[in-house]
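Hi D.,

Good news: the full-assembly prediction came through. Inputs first.
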Amino acid sequence: MQITTEAVVEEPRTAALNEAVELVEVRRVFRGGPSPVEALAGVTLRVRVGEVVAVVGPSGCGKSTLLELACGLQAPDGGSARALPAAFMPQRDLLLPWLNALDNAALALRAQGLARPRARARAAAHFEAFGLRGFEAARPWELSGGMRQRVAFLRTLLAGTPVLALDEPFGALDALTREELQGWLAAMLAREPRTVLLVTHDVEEAIVLADRVIVLSPRPGRVVAELDVPLARPRTRTDAAVVALRARTLEALA
Amino acid sequence: MTAAALVLALLGGWELYARLGGVDSFILPAPSEIASALADDRALLWSNFTVTAGEVLLGIAVALAAGLALALALHLSGALRRAVYPLLVASQTIPIVVIAPLLVVWLGYDIGPKLVIVALVCFFPIVVNALDGLARVDPDLLKLMRTFGASRWRTLWSVELPATLPSLFSGAKIAATVAVIGAVLAEQAGSSEGLGHLLLQAIPQLETARAYAAVVLLAALAIGLFLALTALERVTVPWARRPVGRGA
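Then the structure:
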């Protein structure tokens, strides 16, 4: 009897401590067009601290809206959205063309009011690990697509937020670079664990990177499946278990 | 290259017409006569040129400072934008030719009314372009800065203002060409010096070649300003022709 009472009291508290992102029955309707468009129809999504969760779904299912709700960039029309501070990384690298790679990487630190020399020094310390050494002074257009995305990722990481919200971070890259960066991101997260909410339309990417995959339906988006990915890392696209999970996810999507 | 050839052909045709067409030189001087007026009257032309150039440069500077300040204010406040923007457009329907003499009556004969008139004609293209530039900043960039915890001012300073520089240059280039017209109008409305004043005096004196020489200098001033701004733009905003966020 006592044990049950304790559990009931205890559960919400630990939930609050352990959950980095908590979206409960969120609805989002876009008005302003000829007719209102329901983007999300009651989506519940919880991401524990340190967990990597991928959201997959067809185009236009409200994946990006979900991410912006988690980042506090939009407010839900129904339900509740709570999250620890989350830095947003969009599909386009959005590097500022008037800054070099180093200053671009330091942008989040500058945004938080850190003085330029200190911000640059902190960013420069990571250039080696990010494979960007020697390109500190390069302008964005002088970098390859993969390098630009790594600069953008370093910028997001340096924001220092507990949650990283990645919106199709490799969507604009060619297949080879994308695979290379997926491996690199997995290694990065192994070294410096963060809570990650990853939105993607690439099912393999989701399975290679995430602890859990959430499948959304076409618009209006709702959760149609949730798959755990209890596989050891590093994973590759050709692992039998990855291929099997991919088949299950695609089935849920269909 | 082709533009230079066309100019030469036009000048040649003009020269032939003026010499062989039996036109009096005080009605239409030949280009060669204008060239010699440029050489003979260089001291007179130069002293008046510096006056006009000074008014133009100062007027553009005033318009840039005031225009950017107003564009920022309108960008930051929707209420202010809705209130002021229609007035701004309406102000452009007032013909400068008409208000120039009135400003001289009000502000006197010295540089004051010239600056006001030059700034008035330059102000509009600068404000409109700057405002467009501020409004066209990639909304994803603003979201990015918000998730990084940037303040409004930080975002304005680090992202919106640099992103607006190319638009500001577009506005300044348009302003540079109309500024010269504004300065001449202002001088003709009431002045004792400057190329506009010189033009006004040369015509009744039948010094038509000198008047044309003044026109040549005015055109050179506008072209020079435009080229200087283009060169400055290349140096300060080398990314202007590259889309933000996509790099190459």
